[in-house]
Amino acid sequence: MNPKRFDYFAPESLDEAIKILKEKEDAKILAGGQSLIALMKLRLASPQALVDLNRVQDNLSYIKDEKNYLAVGAMTTHDAVQQNEIIKRKFMLLNDAASKIGDQQVRNRGTIGGSCCHADPAADLPTALLALNPTFVARGPNGHRQINYNDFFVDTFTTSLERDEILTEIRIPYLEPGFCSAYIKHSRREGDFAIVGVGTALVIDKTDNCKDARISLGAVAPTPIRANKAERYLIGKKLTQQVIEEASERAREGADPPSDMHGSKEYRLDMIKVFARRAIKLALSRVK
C-alpha cells in the first residue's frame, strides 16, 4: 500500500524547519523515518506534510561528554549509540537497547530522537533512557525549552512537544561511582519490538548496599514507566537473591499491560518479574 499524497520540505536550518511546522497545521518531522514511513505506507498515519531534518546544517548528530552529563544529539543514529565508547563505559544499558533494535540497516538510519518522539511504549531506547532521568531539550519559535523525563512521554505515540517544537538534544546525567546498568527485553524474534522491556540502573556503595535504584518498563503501559515500588524496596539493601526476587515481584505493581497477539496481560505481568530479575542481575555483574 502507498501513502496518501503529502507535501515534502527539506529545510537547511532549524529556524526554517520550525517556521514550516508553525505554518503547516498537520506536519510531521522526518528523521530516520524507520517508524513514520512504515505507518504512512499502511495509512495509519497520513500527515499533510513531511519536514525532513537530514539537510539541516545545524549539527544534531553527536555524543558529547559534558561536565555533569552526556549530551546526545537527537539525530544520532542507533548504530552511533551502540558503538560509542563513552556509552559502553558509563551507560551500558543504552548500548544494550540500541543493539536490540531491528537489524543493522534499521540501526544505521533510525535516530534516538526519532524513537523518543515517536513514543512507542514498546520501543527500546525510550524505555532504557527512562531509567537514567534524562532531560529532553526542544527548540521552538521562542527558543530552547528543557523537559523533565517525567513529563516528556504523555501517552501512546504522544509526547509533550508542541506542534512547532523540535527535539534537539537528550542530556543524561552522570551517576556516582558504583553505577551499573543493563537493558533486557523479551520479544518473539531478535530485533522485534518488546513484549516486555526492562531497563535497570543501580548504584552500589562500598559496603555492597544499593544506594540508588531505577527500573524502567516498556510495553506494559501506554508509555514507558518506572517501577517505583521495586526501586524503593531495593534502596539500602544488599542485593541478595531473596531481595532481588522480592523487588522483581514488586516491579509488576503499577503496570497495566495490554493483551494482544503477542501475549495476554497476565503473561506480560509474569514476564515483568522474570526480566526484571534478569536485568538486575546483569547490571550487578557489571559493577566495577
Topology:
Elements: E1 7-9, H1 14-23, E2 27-30, H2 36-41, E3 49-52, E4 63-65, E5 69-73, H3 78-83, H4 85-90, H5 92-99, H6 104-109, H7 112-118, H8 124-130, E6 135-140, E7 143-148, H9 149-152, E8 153-155, E9 158-159, E10 166-173, E11 179-186, E12 196-204, E13 210-218, E14 225-226, H10 228-234, H11 241-250, H12 265-284
Verbal overview:
Helix 5 (92-99) runs antiparallel to helix 8 (124-130), helix 10 (228-234) runs antiparallel to helix 11 and helix 11 (241-250) runs antiparallel to helix 12. The chain has helices at residues 14-23, 36-41, 78-83, 85-90, 92-99, 104-109, 112-118, 124-130, 149-152, 228-234, 241-250, 265-284, and strands at residues 7-9, 27-30, 49-52, 63-65, 69-73, 135-140, 143-148, 153-155, 158-159, 166-173, 179-186, 196-204, 210-218, 225-226. The chain starts with 6 loop residues before the first strand and ends with a helix. The protein is 34% helix and 25% strand. The longest helix is centred in the last third of the chain and has 20 residues, at 265-284. It is of the alpha+beta class. The protein is built from twelve helices and 14 strands. A hairpin with a 6-residue loop joins strand 13 (210-218) and strand 14. It folds into three domains: 7-52, 2-Layer Sandwich (Uridine Diphospho-n-acetylenolpyruvylglucosamine Reductase, domain 2), CATH 3.30.43.10; 63-173, 2-Layer Sandwich (Uridine Diphospho-n-acetylenolpyruvylglucosamine Reductase, domain 3), CATH 3.30.465; 179-284, Enolase-like, domain 1. The strands form four sheets. Strands 4-5-10-6-7 form a five-stranded antiparallel β-sheet.
